[in-house]
Each structure stands twice: as C-alpha cells, then as structure tokens.
Amino acid sequence: MKRLLIIVLSILILSPSFGSLFIYASFKINQKEIAQTICVQRKSVFNSCNGRCELQKSIKKYADNEKKQDSLKEKLELVYVQNSPEVKFSVISLIESKENSSILFEKKPIKASNLTFHPPLGLV
C-alpha cells in the first residue's frame, strides 16, 4: 500500500514537467484523425503537414500557459515582501551594585550529598 502511494505521489509531482511529452503522445495517438479533421492543409492534395501544425499550436499554447503561471508566481512573491521599520538604539549606562544580594553567597555550604556524586554502576 505504501509503495502504491509513493508511486502515485511521485507521478503527481513529476507530471507538470512532462506536460509537453503528454501533448506529443496524445498527438501521435490521434495523428491520423487530427490530419483529416483539424489540420489547416487537410483539403490540400499534397498534404505534407500531417497535423504537425496543430501539434505546434498546442505546444505553443502549453508554453504560453507555463509563462503565464511563472509570471503569477513572481507576482505572488512580491506580495510577501515586507519593509522592516527603522530601529534606533540608545545607550543605557550600567548601574553597578557592590553588594551581593543573592541568597547563595550569604552562607558557605555545609557538606556535599553522596547520593548525587557517585560513579556509574555499569562500568564498575
């Protein structure tokens, strides 16, 4: 199940990069029908196009669509630009205290606990 999900997600991620390949494959599958129905030169006796004009049109349309999406991405990136406000720093003089106001420095330690300081049991 995981492999199937990985394969499906990989195909979905890679599918935009294979857009022109899909257009070409669909053209090759339907080339005879395109040459007989859609092609501009279909009524010509010596038709050398064989529907390639439609292939060029669809590839150009796909490329234009990609350029349009790229320009939209650039516009979206401009939305996220933010100017930071100017920050001014001022110098504050230090006030030095000569007295120790901490409770830790008032009395000396009486003794150390042997329960806290012991060697590791696994290495002995």
Care to describe what's here?
This protein is an all-alpha fold and about 120 residues long. The protein is built from four helices and no strands. The model has no long low-confidence stretch (mean pLDDT about 75).
The percent range for strand residues is under 5%
Main beta sheet, described?
none
Which percent range fits the helix content?
Answer: 40-55%
The radius of gyration is 38 Å
Question: Which descriptor suits the 3D outline?
Answer: elongated
Helix-strand topology string: HHHH
Classify the secondary structure makeup into a structural class. mainly alpha
Count all strands and give the number.
0
Q: Indicate the low-confidence ranges by residue numbers.
A: none
